Amino acid sequence: MLLRPILRTCMLIAAAMLAPMLPGAALAQSQLTVVVAVAAGGSSDIGMRTIAAKVEQMGGPRIVVEARPGGGGATGTLGVRNAAPDGRTLLLASYATHVVIPALPGGTQYDPIADFIPITTLFSFPVMLAVNASVEAKTVPELAALAKRKPGGLSYASQGVGTAGHLLGELLAKSIGTPLLHIPYRGAAPAMIDLVAGRVDAMFVGVLPSKAHLESGALRVLAVTSKTRMREVPQAPTMAEVGYPDVDSEFVWFGLVAPAKTPEPAIKNLHELFTKAAAAPDVREKLAAQGISVETSTPAELLARIKADTAKFGPIIRASGTAK
After folding, report:
1. Burial of 75 by CB count in 10 Å (0-12 exposed, 13-18 middle, 19+ buried)?
2. For position 175, which CATH number holds?
């Protein structure tokens, strides 16, 4: 009679020992935390919460999306690096956390390759090249010609050193073969104010935040940085269409990474959970309405992307005004 209780106890112990080896079952019954290294309410935060809700809806684990801003993204990134490698604490990584910060002074607090394991890319943000309506150029080639003959060159605003707007401006300058005057701001809002006022000539900026200024005629869109034309501005060609294929926003990516030493079975399960949720038609539609383009990848593809972007943009960032 004592055999049954003993067997039951042994089975419970065995199940507990096997749980870490069964990441799919374990994660489905647990809670995950995804750290977003910027303030809550931004586009990346919205994108992550939308996908997380879909994971839960599809029977996945409960997901807490936690905003940990600070240090330009370093604070949240370091927190995840130091978390237990059990697949339950993840980071919404980005070009900022894994390419820009490591290239800036003091950005060696973590190694973006050695300290994390990629899971998947989730989404990206295509933007447009907009100019003030007073700028005479109506196309990107005309803008390039204007930049070459204008004393002092054309100016472009950005959200700050190392941001997408800055890096795209540097790519444009390289592509057209002439320097452009970079005017960094503390965020998109003050940069947009000066662009609309005509105090700067151009800016790479999101379509949705600029919609009212496009409709009023204060700004004019010359091209978009996506692979295909954007439905919000269908008349605007892609940068590739107008002869500048290197000026694209594929580097403005956001994806999931886990702390180093997270078991491979857990990484595989997380990849399946999040790529399936991101690929859902209703998720794609909802994010598209926010100007967010869903894009998933394998872990190996995300790792290759980080390495390629580091090689491409590291020198640009280090050569900028605040980097060494």
Report:
1. middle
2. 3.40.190.10
* Strands lying side by side in the sheet with 116-124: 62-67, 31-36, 89-94, 253-259, 116-124, 293-294
Shared domain check, 211 and 134: yes
Quick one: tokens of 26?
Answer: 């374990």
Rg (CA), the chain: 23
CATH number of the domain bearing residue 75: 3.40.190.150
Residues in contact with 215: Cβ distance below 8 Å, sequence separation at least 6, in sequence order? none
Q: How far is CA 15 from the centre of its chain?
A: 39
How far apart are alpha carbons 103 and 110 in whole angstroms?
11
What b-and-e string marks burial along 171-189, b requiring 16 or more CB atoms within 10 Å of the CB? Answer: bbbebbebebbbbbbeebe
pLDDT tens, position by position, 61-91? 999 999 998 887 899 999 999 999 999 999 9
**SS3 of 270, please?**
helix
- Taking every pair of Cα atoms in the chain, the longest distance, rounded to a whole number of angstroms, is 96
Token code pair at residue 202: 């151009």
* Number of Cβ atoms within 10 Å of the Cβ of 204: 27
Same domain, 121 and 8: yes
Can you count the helices (H) and strands (E) in the chain?
Answer: 13, 11
Domain membership of residue 244 (yes or no) is no
Contact 319, 104 (CB under 8 A): no
Amino acid identity of residue 230, one-letter, is M
Residues 21 and 79 in one domain: yes
For the stretch 227-282, pLDDT in tens is 889 888 999 999 999 999 989 877 789 999 999 999 999 999 999 999 999 999 99
Cβ density class 275-307: b for 16+ within 10 Å, e for less: bebbebeebbebbeeebbbbbbbebeebbebbe
* Structural domain of 56: 3-125+252-318
Q: Of 209, 224, 239, which closes a domain? A: 224
